Amino acid sequence: PADPGERGRPLAAVCLTDVFADGLSMVYSFYDPDLSDLSLGTHVILDHIAIAREAGLPYVYLGYWVPGSRKMGYKSGFPALEIYKAGQWSDLGDPAQHCAELHPLSVDPIAEQVARISLPDTRAPDVRGPDPRIRD
In angstroms, what CA-CA distances link 53 with 15, 70, 76? Predict the structure, then answer.
């Protein structure tokens, strides 16, 4: 707030974010449930895209998307969304196709799924340059 005596606007949304060399990883986000009609999840993603661009980071990782989850459905509206399924990364395509084929008893526990994830051997180049806070 401009005036130290003002409290400003109430907090509406929060996102816990990890910063990696190649992007931002949106670990967990939450918002005021009374403001759900404002699509705050979408705004948080758009904000992270802007932050990543400003920092020269090529990726924004949206975190988990659960097929059929109304609360996570907004994530499937972003283009270039990939999912990890059957041991490989692939474009999401039509979200409705994934809802019908999954049942809680037909998939491995999340810990086993995460343990099998393999990332590419190469990393995106660090386009940010050296950290000015670190001195030789």
Answer: 17, 28, 21
- Is the model's pLDDT at 11 over the cut of 70? yes
The domain limits of the chain are 1-63, 67-122
What backbone phi and psi angles, to 5 degrees, belong to 27?
A: -75, -50
**Residues 59 and 26: beta-carbon distance below 8 Å:** no
CA distance 42 to 47: 9
pTM, to two decimals: 0.61
CA atoms within 13 A on the CB side of 38: 11
Strand order in the sheet with 13-20: 13-20, 23-31, 59-61
Residue 85 CA, chain-centre distance (Å), reads: 17
Q: Is 129 or 68 the better-scoring residue by pLDDT? A: 68
Q: What is the DSSP string of 11-42?
A: P-EEEEEEEETTEEEEEEEEE-GGGGGG-HHH
DSSP conformational letter for 99 = H
